[in-house]
């Protein structure tokens, strides 16, 4: 519930900056911070720490969820491509969500070794942030402006 409240704020507040700075320039820091927060769960061992993590991660993951469709749509050359690009994006996102939980459960093992299932999503989020950054630099080179 707390993470969902943070996500609600994260879906609104960062979007206010998109018009000024561009969707790539707002989503990339949010995803990098989300990756760092997932890694930080290794150090969380109190109720207050869990609460702070839930609010912050909810905020930054909500920002990702709300800015992903405009970011993917900005790659389309015309309006007819938007649906296809979003479909491909959400197909792979859905597949990751489908197989990620059982993989994390297998990594947890019966002895409850928590660092392994924490490492998997943190690396996935970090790799996605690096991919977004690479896409941004390629778009900057093609478009000729820093405000994407």
From TrEMBL:
Chain ranges of the Major facilitator superfamily (MFS) profile domain: 1-148
The keyword Membrane is assigned to this record: yes
Gene Ontology CC, one term: membrane
Pfam families according to UniProt: MFS_1
Any one GO MF annotation of this record: transmembrane transporter activity
Keyword Membrane recorded: yes
Alphabetic keyword roster: Membrane, Transmembrane, Transmembrane helix
Subcellular location field: Membrane
Membrane topology: Multi-pass membrane protein
TM spans (from-to): 21-44, 50-72, 84-108, 114-138
Family: Belongs to the major facilitator superfamily. Monocarboxylate porter (TC 2.A.1.13) family.
Name of the protein described by the UniProt record: Predicted protein
Organism: Laccaria bicolor (strain S238N-H82 / ATCC MYA-4686) (Bicoloured deceiver)
């Amino acid at each position: 519930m707390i993470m969902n409240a943070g996500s609600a704020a994260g879906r609104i507040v960062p979007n206010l900056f998109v018009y000024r700075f561009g969707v790539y320039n707002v989503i990339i820091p949010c995803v990098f911070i989300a990756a760092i927060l997932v890694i930080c769960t290794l150090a969380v061992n109190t109720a207050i720490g869990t609460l702070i993590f839930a609010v912050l991660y909810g905020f930054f993951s909500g920002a990702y969820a709300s800015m992903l469709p405009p970011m993917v749509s900005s790659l389309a050359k015309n309006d007819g491509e938007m649906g296809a690009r979003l479909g491909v994006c959400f197909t792979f996102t859905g597949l990751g969500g489908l197989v990620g939980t059982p993989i994390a459960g297998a990594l947890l093992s019966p002895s409850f070794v928590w660092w392994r299932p924490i490492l998997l999503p943190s690396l996935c989020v970090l790799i996605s942030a690096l991919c977004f950054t690479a896409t941004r630099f390629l778009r900057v080179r093609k478009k000729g402006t820093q405000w994407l």
